[in-house]
Amino acid sequence: MSYEVGYRSRRVRERLIHRLKERGISNPQVLDAIREVPRHQFVDEAFAHRAYDDDVLPIGYEQTISQPYVVARMTEALLRQGLPQRVLEIGTGSGYQTAVLASIVQQVYTVERIGALIRRAQKRFSDLSILNVEMKLDDGYVGWEEKAPFDAIIVTAAPERVPTRLFNQLEM
């Protein structure tokens, strides 16, 4: 990557952080994570020029990467009761939300139902040296009972209702 591209990337990241602050995101850990996780590496190359726009982008398989505001808001909500150590994420997708979480918490466990997406996310985590993520190819409705209990669970997929099985995997 050339210095010029990196410089522009830093500038567009700071504009995104400014927009998130304007929309009410205030947790410094969340803002730092959004600033530092390279979102452009979690989108298809055709959309890399839009990676730091506050927009949803397609990632294939009729799935999307959430807009940065939603990722920031969900992460901020997850941290509201303190810093969880072990987090279960349902819906790995591109891995962006996972990477944001991994930059804040000790361990992330993530479940994805689409094999191609989990393989892409796994490669991204490897390329970025993100080592505190365990992944499972499965239906998110069942969670990850073998790794429970979790301090927090974040559902980034869009189920009609949160499965009861997930509540049973929370540390009480």
Pattern of helices and strands: HHEEHEHEHEEH
Question: Unreliable runs, pLDDT <50, ≥5 residues?
Answer: 1-5
Number of helical regions? 6
Helix content: 25-40%
Distance between the termini: 46 Å
For the secondary structure, the number of strands is 6
Mean pLDDT: 92
Estimated structural class: alpha/beta
Question: How does the overall form come out from the CA principal axes?
Answer: globular
Radius of gyration: 16 Å
Strand proportion: 15-25%
Description:
The protein starts with a helix and ends in a 5-residue tail after the last helix. The relative contact order is 0.14. The N terminus is likely disordered. Helix 5 links the parallel strand 4 and strand 5. It has 172 residues and is of the alpha/beta class. The strands form 2 sheets. The protein has a 4-stranded parallel beta sheet, with helices on one face. Helix content is 38%, strand content 16%. The chain is globular, with a radius of gyration of 16 Å.
Secondary structure elements and pairings:
Blueprint: H1 3-22, H2 28-36, E1 57-60, E2 63-65, H3 68-79, E3 86-90, H4 96-102, E4 107-112, H5 115-127, E5 133-137, E6 152-155, H6 164-167
Parallel strand pairs: 3-4, 3-6, 4-5
Antiparallel strand pairs: 1-2
Helix pairs in contact: 1-2
